Automatic annotation (TrEMBL):
Keywords noted in UniProt: NAD, Oxidoreductase
Similarity comment: Belongs to the Gfo/Idh/MocA family.
Domain Gfo/Idh/MocA-like oxidoreductase N-terminal residues, every copy: 4-124
Pathway stated in the Swiss-Prot or TrEMBL entry: Polyol metabolism; myo-inositol degradation into acetyl-CoA; acetyl-CoA from myo-inositol: step 1/7
Catalytic activity: myo-inositol + NAD(+) = scyllo-inosose + NADH + H(+); 1D-chiro-inositol + NAD(+) = scyllo-inosine + NADH + H(+)
Membrane-spanning ranges: none
Protein name as annotated: Inositol 2-dehydrogenase/D-chiro-inositol 3-dehydrogenase
InterPro entries referenced in this protein's UniProt entry, alphabetically: Gfo-Idh-MocA_inositol_DH, Gfo/Idh/MocA-like_OxRdtase_C, Gfo/Idh/MocA-like_OxRdtase_N, MI/DCI_dehydrogenase, NAD(P)-bd_dom_sf
EC number, as in UniProt: 1.1.1.18, 1.1.1.369
Superkingdom of the source species: Bacteria
């Protein structure tokens, strides 16, 4: 096909950003229709962008003039619309998480296997970031020895007022859960989450920062700091201690600013600035692969594995204990 005709369900902020990205920046695809669980809102967004609007997202997914689906709804709707896309035999890109709970992810995995073809890609955009890609290439090369320890940080200037203690894992560090599993090429064995002294920047009952500690099956030890109210910048760090070297993620290309008698660097304040190129590469890859008839990115199984580890980390946070991460055995379907 010359152009992938995309139907987008979920017309909130990130959905609208993806419409603009696909229709104005990327190649080979076009969002030709949209819908939203709140039907009237989806229709208003369709009118804004001059595309076809559907009041019912399922009708859009099943429309024969839609080649592929992008799901950018609130998390609880993901399962319904991804399953509908699989049933329609259409490639579907689902923003993370694949579904909020591991059992829902498992149902998606089972539906995809029953369909007999991989159709689902999960929106873990950090795998497409040049810094993480350089780290993975260095680890995979073997010339620095084995990875032994990882030290990571995920810092935000602020978060919405409804942010609670569970969200440090489930909405923030979930990115590290996926990208570090991909970077090291192995699953996790245990998860732990510990609290430090809390900042005064957030609500008094919010534990911030938090430290997540993961151990892989081969024994690699990972610590991830989540500090979501640092009042400063959006800052992502990853350092890998190997047998023969210490590997650090390259710093983003901030501009240098001379202002107010001070020389310094402007810094990113959100993920859409920091990972703009990664988002573009991720969606372009999905468009290209969907047109060619295959999935070339994080699979439904990756989405399931992420939620299993996130659930273990959340239980570890609640109990302040070390919790095993227990996956089902990977089906042969996903080993190909």
């Amino acid at each position: 096909m010359s152009e992938l005709r995309i139907g987008l369900v979920g017309t909130g902020g990130i959905g609208r950003t993806h419409i603009e990205r696909i229709n104005n920046t990327l190649q080979g695809g076009k969002v030709v229709a949209c819908a939203d669980p709140v039907g009237a809102f989806g229709l208003s967004v369709a009118e804004k962008y001059g595309i076809k609007g559907f009041e019912n997202p399922i009708d859009m997914i099943n429309d024969p003039e839609i080649d592929a689906v992008m799901c950018t709804t609130a998390d609880p709707y993901h399962e319904e619309y991804v399953l509908a896309s699989i049933a329609a035999g259409k490639y579907v890109f689902c923003e993370k998480p694949l579904a909020p709970k591991a059992d829902a992810c498992k149902r998606i995995v089972e539906a995809e296997m029953k369909a007999g073809k991989k159709l689902v890609q999960v929106g873990f955009m950090r795998r497409y970031d040049e810094g993480y890609k350089q780290l993975k290439a260095a680890v995979d090369s073997g010339k620095y020895g084995e990875a032994l320890l990882l030290h990571c940080a995920h810092r935000n200037p602020s978060v919405p007022a409804d942010w609670d203690n569970s969200m440090a894992v489930e909405n923030s560090m979930v990115h590290e859960i996926d990208v570090l599993r991909w970077l090291l090429g192995e699953d996790y064995a245990t998860a732990e989450v510990r609290y430090g002294k809390s900042t005064n920047n957030g609500p008094k009952d919010l534990h911030d920062p938090q430290i997540m500690i993961l151990t892989t099956k081969s024994g690699v030890r990972i610590d991830v700091e989540s500090f979501v109210n640092n009042k400063n910048d959006y800052d992502i760090k990853c350092e890998i201690v190997c047998d023969g070297a210490v590997l650090n993620m390259p710093k983003p290309n901030y501009i240098s600013v001379n202002a107010n008698a001070t020389t310094g660097q402007a810094m990113y304040t959100d993920c859409f600035q920091r990972f703009a190129d990664a988002y573009n590469a991720e969606i372009q890859t999905w468009i290209n692969a969907s047109k060619a008839g295959y999935v070339d990115g994080p699979t439904a199984w990756d989405g399931y594995c992420c939620q299993v580890a996130a659930a273990a980390a959340s239980k570890a946070r609640e109990t302040q204990t070390i919790v095993p991460v227990e996956y089902d055995e990977m089906p042969d379907f996903y080993k190909k």
